Amino acid sequence: MSLAKLLNIIVDTYELSKDHFLGPENRIYYLYLLSSLLLALFVYIRKKNKKSFFSYLFDKRIWTSKSALNDYLIFSFNNLFKILFIGPYLIIGLYIAFYINEYLIIWLGFPKKSLSIGQTIFFYTIALTLINDFLSYIVHLALHKIPILWEFHKVHHSATTMNPITQYRIHPVELILNNARGIMGFGIVTGIFDYYSNHELDTVVFIGANIFTFLFMFFGANLRHSHVKLKYPSFLEYIFISPYQHQIHHSINKHHYDKNMGSKLAIWDFIFGTLILSKETSRIRFGVEGNQKDYSSFTNLIWLPFLKAFNLIKLLKKVRD
Ligand SMILES: [Zn+2]
Ligand SMILES: [Zn+2]
Fold first, then answer.
1. CB–CB of 261/248 below 8 Å?
2. How far apart are the first and last CA of the chain?
3. Tally of CB atoms within 10 A around 213
4. Burial, 252: exposed, middle or buried (Cβ in 10 Å; 0-12, 13-18, 19+)?
5. Ligand 2 geometric centre to CA of 97 (Å)
6. What pLDDT does residue 216 have?
7. In angstroms, what is the C-alpha Rg of the chain?
8. Of the bound ligands, which one is closest to the alpha carbon of residue 140?
9. Is the pLDDT of residue 256 over 60?
């Protein structure tokens, strides 16, 4: 690799890391961080904390812990990984949409009646949100229930302190799975709607599709990975996962394992019996049971899941023979 190419990759990684704070499609966009700050203030006032708001929110033990430092490292590493191995494949979503649209035309002929632009925006937005959220739940469930995948997902759960960057503390293998899931969901829904809207789907619709994501991010998505216990009224927690409900998902307590696996919506957890409401628990500790020490260095966080997954495959083979 030439020096110029290497330099380009470094600059791109830096730009991508910076863009996370500057693009409204990203969770840590500065405006969402700001709205999270206001929601945290609301929780702080209700809690009648003795500390100042600043020291409550920016607790040094949380933001500068070893666990947090690993979050920042994995965040940067994953951005480099994205530039090199994921970015070039995002276009596949459009190919899937194109082929689904073509297939529908061959199979059903041209639609006799097309959706209007308003209908397209409305239904496409809802369909994309529901399908993406459902696929997220299924992939998350698989990450918890399939032992080999759990070894990789454990990286996210091994955080012992949480801050908004912990969201990005995921193993590159999980990053690939999540992106593949996103590409599939986008491709399928876009292909179907492109067919029924007579190709009216353009960038305007793509922006429209983000309204739910925008609301989700604006109402405290950043507090999911934090020590701020933002709970929603119980009836709402059957529909939307509150930040505290996701914190329960990170709990080390056995009763909380494999619970609250939804991304934005709580309905999948409710349907499949994996939902816990905030009012059901008040004290939680974050992390994974047992070998927490294994996950205290960056190299271990990247390398160890491969080793453990390999050992699991070996063991499985032995049992079978
Ligand atoms: Zn999980
Ligand atoms: Zn999480």
1. no
2. 45
3. 18
4. middle
5. 30
6. 83
7. 21
8. 1
9. yes
Q: What digits encode the pLDDT tens for the residues 180-218?
A: 999 999 999 989 988 888 776 665 556 555 777 888 888
Q: For residue 94, how many other CB atoms are within 10 A of its CB? A: 15
- d(CA 237, CA 260) in angstroms, rounded, equals 10
**Taking the CB of residue 286, how many other CB atoms lie within 10 A of it?**
19
Mean pLDDT in residue range 18-30: 80
Instruction: Give the ligand with the smallest distance to the CA of 143.
Output: 1
CA distance 268 to 259: 11
Position 141 scores a pLDDT of 97
- Banded model confidence at residue 289, pLDDT cuts 50, 70, 90: confident
Burial 44-80 (b: 16+ CB within 10 A, else e): beeeeeeeeeeebbeeeebeebebbebbbbbbbbbbb
The H-or-E segment that residue 182 falls in is: helix 172-196
Within 8 A by CB and 6+ apart from 22, the residues are 29, 30
Question: Which residue type does 308 have?
Answer: K
Parse the chain into domains and list their residue ranges.
Answer: 3-320
CA–centroid distance, 153 to ligand 1, in Å, is 7
Helices 66-81 and 3-22, packing angle to 10 deg:
120
Q: Which ligand is nearest to the CA of 246?
A: 2
Residue 140 CA to ligand 1 center (angstroms) comes to 6
Predicted local confidence at residue 122, as pLDDT: 84
At 161, is the secondary structure helix, strand, or coil?
coil
Residue 120 Cα to ligand 1 midpoint, Å, equals: 33
- Write the pLDDT tens digit of every residue in 246-255: 999 999 998 9
